Amino acid sequence: MAAQEDNIFKNVISHAKEYGFIFPSSEIYDGLSAVYDYGQNGAELKNNIKEYWWKFMTLLHENIVGIDAAIFMHPTTWKASGHVDAFSDPMLDNKDSKKRYRADVLIEDAIAKMEEKIEKEVEKAAKRFGESFDKEKFVTTNPRTLEYQKKIDDTNARLKTATSNADMAAMKQIIIDLDIADPVSGTKNWTDVRQFNLMFSTEMGSVADDANKIYLRPETAQGIFVNFLNVQKTGRMKIPFGIAQIGKAFRNEIVARQFIFRMREFEQMEMQFFVKPGEEMQWYEYWKEKRMRWHQTLGLGAENYRFHDHLNLAHYANAACDIQFNFPIGFKELEGIHSRTDFDLKNHEKYSGKKLQYFDSEENQSYIPYVVETSVGLDRMFLSILSKSYTEEKLEDGSDRVVLRIPAPLAPHKVAVLPLMKKDGLPEKAMEIMNELKFDLNCFYEEKDAIGRRYRRQDAIGTPYCVTVDHQTLEDNTVTIRDRDTMKQERVKISDVKAQLIDACSINNLLRKI
Ligand code: GAP
């Protein structure tokens, strides 16, 4: 990470704590690694992100319904889903730094460095050749870029084979051949690569033997798969249809750094879309496009999102990609879109002995549907919004301000109602306005300190509008509305305030733009 981005990331993390968005879990006991609590402002922002997702899925798609399945599931669920045998990361330790790493991540980072080298060659050549530069021709003919590209392709192919064969020795050999050194110790003194299962387990009931061992779900998706027929039959759903869910998931992440990007307890917003076998690729493309539009409608900058196709497919997928976001730690996965075939339902049928088939009355036949899944991490959504909206500004008068330019419909508070002074009946008038607004908008009331300081505090928590009650209000029933981003103020009739703010802050209006 570049030093400047590193600093911004540190500032975002300390801002999140100082302003009640995110606290380390059980901080008075020095915290718990990769576990976080959401504070008063964080909880509001999180709820708003959930609403934006839930409404998009369930209100805007008449063939998608939502459920809320339990975190604990019958242990055989995880045998059938493949998680007991295959949900593991290939890990290795550096003997000098004693740090543990994911082998595939070390290799992917090395590939990313080679890609950067190609980019640098392209930049240099573009400068040299000016307007006549043909990038496509350059990368396909320049010996140095061709050499890098060949190394990238070879490495990707070897990583793919090693992953699908679960061949840990081959994975270690790639690390040796690429001459990868530990970023901490700088040495290449590596242990062998071993598989490490990521599921947390606990015991159910009073007898702590193996028969009672259950897992904390590592993905919410399985709660949807095991309820597939319950929902289909009770909802009389016809294929294609979807089931959506928001809920906690748990993974014993070994490389658990980077704040809320990689947590051990986190939340997912997942939707499984059940389709006719053979039609999955068309729906896969459909959902890629829809999900990208959902993200970009937030207005954080279309250039901050990109697709990244998976070369190494998970055990259940026949096509998969990520929507990556430009986090302060670089472009990283925000959402996964996977064509999961009939892998899950077929295996649940096998392990449970219960039929999990859909009767297609048009085709007059039963089949196990194929599934296209969209899975976005709620905490990563939170981080994408927080980190892109965090802005340090130098103002014309020379002063500094930190402002969170959170999209207005997602902001924790939509409006702060502020009497200019704590006297002359201004607080009473402000309270009157607040009491009218609070049924439709999440409001904040404050009367202490100079108005400028109160504006700054609202900027820091991302409140898009401040309604200020001054002496003129008492004369002509008008207030000023201050815009967080432009800091401009306009005078508005009190009777117009509510409609104007609801219009600007409504999640439903945001949904209309998708
Ligand atoms: N059901 C499919 C599934 O779980 P995944 O790619 O492993 O797929 C989906 O996870 C999304 O969940 C990711 O794109 C990411 O946003 C989020 N996620 C996964 N692991 C996470 C972690 N340790 N901390 C925070 N979010 C995580």
Characterization of the model:
By secondary structure, the chain is of the alpha+beta class. The protein folds into 3 domains: 1-75 and 198-394, Bira Bifunctional Protein, Domain 2 (BirA Bifunctional Protein, domain 2), CATH 3.30.930; 88-195, Herpes Virus-1 (2-Layer Sandwich); 402-512, Anticodon-binding domain (Rossmann fold), CATH 3.40.50. The protein has 18 helices and 23 strands. Strand 4 and strand 5 form a beta hairpin. The longest helix has 27 residues, at 103-129. It starts with a helix and ends with a helix. The mean pLDDT is 94. The structure holds glycyl-adenosine-5'-phosphate. The site of glycyl-adenosine-5'-phosphate has 19 residues, from strand 10, strand 13, strand 16 and helix 13. Glycyl-adenosine-5'-phosphate is lined by residues 219, 221, 251, 253, 262-263, 266, 268, 270, 333-336, 373, 375-377, 379-380.
